[in-house]
Write a structure and sequence with these properties.
351 residues, disordered C terminus, 16 helices, alpha/beta, two-stranded antiparallel ribbon, 7-stranded mixed sheet
């Protein structure tokens, strides 16, 4: 079993101390918003070498002690700590009870606690409680995609972004819904203990490390397949993006005439075939930009754009940023600045 390193890259002076982490719950909290991040940190503790101090001290806290989650399972949460109690990381979970909790004294407690914490985070709609505590103004913020508009209306000074899985804005971390809290917690572990430690935790939990924070909350293919009769076609498209996929070829694959296919496809998905194909290709290009060092020319060919310029126009149209800017913003450790700077050069690996 891979062991977690004992060093803490961000704060080496505190390497021998366990960081107190508090996860805030309340009535009708989303169960996985609490349990997902909690298990990530608990597993980091479990993987600590024998004889070494665990990196984290964990507590689930709530205004009224034990609370009932929206799934019906009770959580043995402790009381809210005093303002002067030590805390390193404060994480606020989301759930359908968040708006009721926002109308209580909980936001005031969160504001006071946040002032003492090294960093503050929210999972899903927990961002509403951070907003009520006055912590979102001028910050980039993520939440569940269905709640983005409501969050932006309620806290107009926040820069709500509907796409990313999680966002770090200095000492404020916010994530999208449910399972994205696990991605957020893994990113926090990586910031504290290093990538090898986060990878060991992810392997132990059998989760994928690591979805880039800028990855879309849900895929274009998933959106297109919701109740669609063209699921098999979308799977085939995903395997043949580099090919010249005309409406005629798509119609033949679907066993329909081109005119009938175009009409039925739009009725089923809400997109024209050309628009859906562009979005699928852009999504594939975004993954390669964030997760590889491939130059733009190679990405354009792999995703079926044909040329760098066509790729640039499509990414800018769908994402609102040039491919190079997107790569610089969302590339993980696997994509270095050197790799990002070679856009447009030949592919040395011949991939």
């Amino acid at each position: 079993m891979t062991k977690v390193p004992r060093f803490l890259p961000d704060c080496p002076a505190t390497a021998v101390r366990s960081r107190p982490i508090e996860i805030v719950a309340y009535a009708d909290v989303q169960l996985l918003d609490v349990a997902g991040p909690l298990q990530v940190f608990a597993t980091a503790n479990d993987l600590t070498p024998v004889g070494s101090p665990p990196p984290y001290t964990l507590a689930v806290v709530a205004p009224d002690g034990p609370v009932r989650s929206s799934a019906g399972l009770g959580l043995a949460a402790g009381p809210l700590p005093a303002d002067d109690a030590p805390v390193d990381t404060l994480i606020v979970a989301g759930g359908r009870g968040v708006h009721t909790a926002s109308a209580t004294d909980l936001p005031a407690w969160i504001a006071g606690r946040a002032a003492r914490a090294r960093r503050v985070a929210s999972v899903c709609t927990g961002a509403f409680l951070l907003g009520a505590a006055g912590l979102l103004d001028g910050r980039r913020v993520a939440t569940h995609w269905t709640a983005c508009d409501a969050l932006a209306r309620r806290y107009p000074e926040a820069r709500v972004e509907p796409d990313p899985i999680f966002i770090r804005d200095r000492d404020l971390w916010t994530s999208a819904g449910v399972s994205a809290g696990i991605d957020l917690a893994l990113a926090l572990v990586e910031a504290d203990l290093g990538r090898a430690a986060a990878l060991a935790v992810a392997r132990h939990l059998v989760v994928f490390l690591k979805r880039p924070g800028g990855q879309a909350q849900f895929s274009t293919a998933l959106a297109l397949q919701a109740g669609s009769r063209f699921d098999a076609l979308h799977a085939w498209i995903g395997e043949n993006l580099s090919e010249p996929l005309t409406v005629e070829r798509l119609a033949a694959e679907a066993g329909m005439s081109p005119r009938g296919f175009a009409r039925h496809y739009r009725a089923a998905t809400g997109f024209t075939p050309a628009r859906a194909l562009e979005r699928l290709r852009v999504e594939a290009a975004r993954r390669l930009l964030a997760e590889s060092r491939l130059p733009l020319k190679r990405i354009a060919l792999l995703c079926g754009f044909g040329s760098e310029e066509t790729l640039r126009r499509a990414v800018r149209r769908c994402v609102g940023a040039a491919p190079g800017a997107y790569r610089r913003r969302f590339a993980g450790e696997g994509t270095s600045r050197e790799g990002a700077s070679r856009e447009g050069t030949s592919d040395p690996a011949g991939i």
